[in-house]
Amino acid sequence: MSMAGALADSDGIDFGPLPDAVDALLQEGVVAYRNDKPAADRMFRQALEAAPDSLPVYYCLYKIHTYQGSLDEARTIAERGTREAARQAGWPEAWCMWTPQVPVPDGAGRFALYTLKALAFIYLRRGEGERARAILEHLATLDPAGTVGWPVIADLANGL
Fold it and tell me: Of 78, 117, 139, 153, which residue is 20 to 30 A from 71 by alpha carbon distance?
C-alpha cells in the first residue's frame, strides 16, 4: 500500500477489523499525509495511543517515517510493531528465536514477518548492512518462499 496513492475509492483503505475511531484516524492520516505530514504523524500516533495492539497503526507510522527518511523513528516503530505482532502470534519477543511455521502464518504472524522485512530495509537505509543481513538470513528460514517479499530486500543488500 502506498501512502500517497492509498485511497483507491471513497471507502478508503481496508485496514482490517479495527475500532471505528482508530480506523477513522488512520483514514484521515493517510489523506493528510499527502499535504501535511506532521498532521498525519499526529493522527497515527493518536491511533497508536488509543489502540497499541492495532498492528496497522505501526505499519502506517513506520512507513511514513521511512518515506520521509526519519530512519531512527522508523526503526523504533518497526521494532515495536514487530514485538507487538510477535506477542499476538504467541512467539518470543526476540525475532532471532522465531521458528519456521508451515505454512507461513496469516494474521499477526504474517505481520511480524512483513515488519521484520521492513526492519531489514530500514537497517540497510541506515547503513547497518550486517544487522539487515542477519534479519534476512533468518527470514530465509522462516519464509523460504519469500511470501512477505524479503528476497527484494536481500537483492538490495547483496547489491551493496
Answer: 139
> What is the pTM for the complete model shown?
0.89
pLDDT tens profile 83-99 = 999 999 999 999 999 99
Asked if 30 and 6 touch (Cβ cutoff 8 Å), the reply is yes
pLDDT in tens, 93-123: 999 999 998 888 899 999 999 999 999 999 9
Instruction: Find where cell 507487538 sits.
Output: 84
Written as one letter, the residue type at 22 is: V
